[in-house]
Amino acid sequence: MTPLATLLVRDMRIAMRVGGGALMGVLFFLVVVTLVPFALGPDLALLKRIGPAILWLAALLASLLALDRLFAADHEDGSLDLILMGRAPLELVVAVKGLAHWFTTGLPLVIAAPLVGLFLNLDVPAEAALVLTFLVGTPALTFIGLIGAAIAVTLRRGGLLLAVLVLPLTVPVLIFGVAAANAAVVGPVPFGNPFVVLCALTLGSLIVGPFAAAAALRQEME
Amino acid sequence: MRLSASDLTCRRGGREIFAGVGFSVASGEALSISGRNGAGKSSLLRMVVGLVRIDGGRLDLEGGDPELTLGEQAHYLGHEDALKPSLSVGENLQFWAGFLGAGAADIGKPLTAVGLDVLADLPAAYLSAGQRRRLSIARLLAVERPIWLLDEPTSTLDAMAQERLAGFMQTHLAAGGLILVATHGPIGLDDAQELQLDQAVPSPLAGEVWEGESGGGATTTPVRRLTTSTPTPSPQGGGVEEER
């Protein structure tokens, strides 16, 4: 296995072990979405209309939940020093860590989305559209979050700073993710238009995120 | 292969930790770095691997792989053991062996060498401090790198493990490697050069060098002493001076 594949396997393994936080994100997502019908009451038309927005907001918060430990844990136990010294380029290392994080926190959200969509009175085409936007959009959340995780790496309580830094940057993803999902539910814009923009945002973040996060890490570790 | 440094300066948090430090270590040689707490032993080691910025001076590696940076040819054993508590002993070592470039390395041999082979399936969370340190040392054995930088490697080790570590270091030196070790006490390498990092307290060791040799030989009054001595009568490899 190459160094990067080894890192991917190791990060996913840690996330899925006890205290790793892989399930925390999806559980948090389920709890938040389940609470909404209790708060709003049994107004099915209302739930259907705001359902995609609720799901996207919950996914946004859930994907930030374990992100602050992504680099901080490696920093605290000295692993980050060795990773920085390693022969693998730091940008790729960061991207692989982001990928491992998405596999363990983003992908479960995609899988759980149709289930909790039922709570919000979404029909089958709406659920399909929602899953598609989640599949395309959640990697953007993770990779934008990488930047915040790298900046907050040396801070003891970096989670709060991370949320403050990252949430504003995720606004475009939120707008077009919800827009695409809503377009499939109520129209009038065709699903494709906002969805293509969402794809573009994700592709952009896949490139910008690792470079910015690697630069932040180098700066922090000096 | 020769690792040489001259006139190195380190500043941390706006404060000068050390200045004018020089040394020269060749294949098969070891350098033992000592000094009081805060003298900059760890910073010097981290500087060599590129984890701390060099604020002045030069650091050269002759005869290394030109494609790789110094850090990529070195093993760094720091204060932290770089182990994940949720992974087993074997998984931890397997990861570092794979990540540091040994591919599908055989981790059985290094684990046996540090005496942890029977605990290979135990999560690292249950290891004692000394066992954790031994597992980190296994990393040095699993992946071959010519330069070893050890930061107080014996601090948590028992007598037997210290002896084993000395054996590993001697084997590494005999194979043509070089070692920089920061330590407060004897490390088990009799023929190591010594580098004393100290700011105000005069060194009690013999062979003090008042005028730097690698620093260009300027004759200024040093305010900081640094001793480099070898078993041979002639002190070699650099000294220190600092201009006020």
Describe the model.
The complex is a heterodimer of chains A (222) and B (244). With 222 residues, chain A is mainly alpha-helical. In chain A, 83% of the residues lie in helices and 0% in strands. In chain A, helix 6 crosses helix 10 and helix 9 runs antiparallel to helix 10. Chain A has one domain. Chain B is of the alpha/beta class and 244 residues long. Chain B has two domains: 163 residues, 3-Layer(aba) Sandwich (Rossmann fold), CATH 3.40.50; 63 residues, no CATH class. In chain B, the strands form two sheets. In chain B, strands 5-6-7-3-8-10-9 form a seven-stranded mixed beta sheet, with helices on both faces. In chain B, helix 2 runs parallel beside helix 4. Chain B is globular, with a radius of gyration of 18 Å. Chains A and B meet through helix 1 and helix 5 of A and helix 2 of B.
What keywords describe this structure?
heterodimer; A: 222 residues; mainly alpha; 83% helix; B: 244 residues; alpha/beta; Rossmann fold; 2 domains; seven-stranded mixed beta sheet; three-stranded antiparallel beta sheet; 10 strands; disordered C terminus
Separation of the first and last Cα atoms of chain B: 34 Å
List unreliable stretches of 5+ residues of chain A. Answer: none
Q: How confident overall, as mean pLDDT of chain B?
A: 78
| CATH fold title of the largest domain in chain B | Rossmann fold
Would you state the CATH class of the largest domain in chain B? Alpha Beta
Offer a quick outline of the entry.
The complex is a heterodimer of chains A (222) and B (244). Chain A has one domain.
Sequence-ordered SSE layout with sheet pairings:
The complex is a heterodimer of chains A (222) and B (244).
Chain A: H1 3-16, H2 22-40, H3 44-65, H4 69-76, H5 79-85, H6 90-119, H7 124-151, H8 158-169, H9 171-185, H10 192-221
Chain B: E1 2-12, E2 15-26, E3 30-34, H1 41-49, E4 56-62, E5 74-77, H2 89-102, H3 108-113, H4 129-142, E6 147-151, H5 159-174, E7 178-182, E8 193-198, E9 208-209, E10 225-229
Parallel strand pairs in B: 3-7, 3-8, 5-6, 6-7
Antiparallel strand pairs in B: 1-2, 1-4, 8-10, 9-10
